[in-house]
Specification:
This protein has 6 helices and 2 strands; from the N terminus they run ααββαααα. By secondary structure, the chain is mostly helical. α4 crosses α5 and α4 packs antiparallel against α6. The relative contact order is 0.11.
């Protein structure tokens, strides 16, 4: 191993891993067939100018409405997927733990002497063994959680934008009536 690699801090390794993971999440992982990068382009709403006309505001409101539909659908799907996977993992972990304990019990029944019998693992070891048996599900859950967090942030963002545009619509209507 070179001195450069040996002298790397754990932070440098984790930072590289994070950047790689983030880049992959943004460009390669797909949600409903599209990357996050592609979704960001599809739901992008340009800032509105200060001197917006009523007709511009109407078009802007329609654009926000269409984007809101996309975000709400994807937010609800990502939340349902994440919630479902969490439940699946809880069940899979319980089943794996039960099988591990059943295997130990079955092996112990075959042993004639108590000295050769296996002890049940501690709770931590049992958890680790069950986790290992369900790595794929845990990976899927992590990816699902990333998509859920992304769509949740977009949901909050579009709600704030909707509130601002509603206020702007009210102000523009009052302004047009007083002109």
């Amino acid at each position: 191993m070179s001195d450069e690699i040996e002298n790397k801090s754990i932070f440098e390794y984790s930072q590289e891993s994070y950047e790689t993971l983030f880049s992959m999440f943004e460009t390669e992982m797909k949600f409903k067939g599209y990357s996050i990068e592609e979704w960001l382009v599809a739901i992008k709403i340009k800032p509105i100018s200060e001197d917006v006309s009523m007709s511009d505001l109407e078009r802007y409101t329609v654009k926000i409405s269409n984007v809101t539909d996309i975000i709400l659908e994807n937010y609800s799907l990502s939340k349902a997927n994440y919630t479902g996977l969490k439940s699946s993992i809880e069940r899979a972990m319980a089943v794996s733990k039960a099988f591990i304990l059943q295997d130990i019990e079955a092996k112990n029944k075959l042993e004639a002497t108590p000295a050769k019998r296996m002890k049940n693992p501690t709770a931590d070891i049992l958890e680790t063994q069950a986790y290992t048996k369900n790595l794929e599900l845990h990976h899927n859950l992590a990816v699902s959680e990333m998509f859920f967090a992304f769509w949740e942030a977009q949901y909050k963002k579009i709600n704030l934008l909707n509130q601002r545009v509603t206020s702007l619509n009210i102000l523009k209507n009052i302004e047009s009536k007083n002109s």
